[in-house]
Amino acid sequence: MIKRLLGKLDRSSKKPVDLERTDNVPRHVAIIMDGNGRWAKKRGLPRIAGHHSGMKAVKRVTLAAKAAGVEYLTLYAFSTENWKRPKEEVDYLMKLPMEFLELELADLIRNNVQVRMMGYTNELPKQTLNALEDAVRKTASNTGLILNFALNYGSRREMMEAVKQIADDVQAGKLDCNQIDEQLMSTRLLSGDLPDPDLLIRTSGEIRLSNFMLWQLAYSEMWFTEVYWPEFSEEHFHEALMEYKRRARRYGGL
Ligand code: IPE
Ligand code: IPE
Ligand code: MG
């Protein structure tokens, strides 16, 4: 009996987990890519240099996620609150998707990646939106990793808009109050048919959600690192996946 118990303890101990195993890979990983500005400051560079360098991390992590067998990768790129930043910084952040796609779209297509966006994207500058829509269109039939960019995304607004939509449907007689359940609410969010994230990663040492996927992260595992986003490597990503494998998700049960 005691031996059996000890055996159990041993299995759950923190020994390294083989990444080659395909079991227990999170289906959906969401990342709050934070620390670009501080990374730049540490090097005496302007903040936008940090954002530029962060773009390379996006590519690295996309390929690492694909290789690990992750199905969905959601990246928080711009929040509904980020408009508060100085105009020059916002302008640069709005140019970044164009720059990124110009550089990387062909390779994303080669890698069978499907690009999606999640957020109030109609409020983005026309050129930014065009570039993103072009990427979404050109990758729509790809069947590999879904790379979902959260752009002008804010979770409170998302939930509020979903509630308004549902209320409208009830008022119009299209929906009965009794039909409102968690499933319906989920599908009315910007994340639509995406499954909830299994794993949330936030870089740069901040331990908060900053209005990111508040509904969808209800039972997600969270992993925080001090590393700034531009220096986030495949190894860091694997570290997070290995930690995920060791976690026991109970969803309130035993
Ligand atoms: C994350 O890095 C990128 C965006 C929020 C667009 P930050 O720009 O927030 O970098 P820090 O947190 O100021 O270092
Ligand atoms: C969250 O980072 C938003 C993105 C990564 C896009 P912020 O840097 O905006 O978050 P706060 O302001 O530190 O909470
Ligand atoms: Mg930040």
Automatic annotation (TrEMBL):
Pfam families: Prenyltransf. It is an enzyme of class 2 (transferase). Substrate binds at residues 35-39, 47, 51, 79-81, 83, 85, 202, 208-210. One of its GO terms (cellular component) is cytosol. Binds 2 magnesium ions per subunit. Mg(2+) binds at D34, E221. The active site is at D34, N82 (proton acceptor). Its cofactor is Mg(2+). GO terms for molecular function: ditrans,polycis-undecaprenyl-diphosphate synthase [(2E,6E)-farnesyl-diphosphate specific] activity; magnesium ion binding; manganese ion binding. Keywords: Magnesium, Metal-binding, Transferase. PROSITE patterns: UPP_SYNTHASE (PS01066). InterPro entries: UPP_synth-like, UPP_synth-like_CS, UPP_synth-like_sf. Belongs to the UPP synthase family. Homodimer. This is Isoprenyl transferase. The lineage of its organism: Bacteria, Bacillati, Bacillota, Bacilli, Bacillales.
